[in-house]
């Protein structure tokens, strides 16, 4: 089938503003948008840049706006998006070039919530055991691949770039509700701060954008509840 694409191009070192460029390529309906982008880069215009690594929905590096919605290019089939396919960089992060955004501000917020297990106690001889119920509490939020689709689709983040954003809150949730961790109170202080969880207006864009289908809004709700009832 013939596929038309409109790709937003921009070079922060040369261009004053972005412009759209159109391409037409032959593709199979079951090709992914990433395949089409790779074809353009290999055979039509080598100057087009975008991030990708695993090509299988694992690394989270090829999140972009496809027909107005944040998606992973490697998980989006050509037949599932209407032509012309409009492709833009993620919204709300500085564009470096074409579809590549500067992820630094995103990862700074990620680091604030201490996204790692904190426990200075002497480890048990074999392993820290958890019941299935204890594991279940944070199961959903372990699935995050840090693609930034959620944060960059959140209107609260668009209007206030200081907001921690759903991705950081997902990371905070993942450790706060882990029975082996000992820094939940510190993390709750961070998410309770001015730019934390209360900036969420339950808009749901984040959950709709998440390629791992994490129930982000529910996780944020559980954080709010933990703060209100001082129970986690
Ligand atoms: Fe991506 Fe989902 Fe993680 Fe957000 S929560 S960064 S959308 S995987
Ligand atoms: Fe934003 Fe998601 Fe809350 S879109 S406002 S973080 S529910
Ligand atoms: Fe790794 Fe798409 S290239 S998630």
**How helical, in percent, are the residues?**
25-40%
User: What is the string of helix and strand elements?
Assistant: EEHEEEEEHHHHHHH
Number of extended strands: 7
Strand order of the largest sheet: 2-1-5-3-4
Radius of gyration: 20 Å
What general outline do the C-alpha atoms trace? elongated
Mean pLDDT: 97
Structure in words:
With 232 residues, this protein is of the alpha+beta class. The chain contains 8 helices and 7 strands. The strands form 2 sheets. The chain has a 5-stranded mixed β-sheet with strand order 2-1-5-3-4, covered by helices on one side. FE2/S2 (inorganic) cluster (FES) binds next to loops. FE2/S2 (inorganic) cluster is lined by residues 52-55, 57-62, 72, 74.
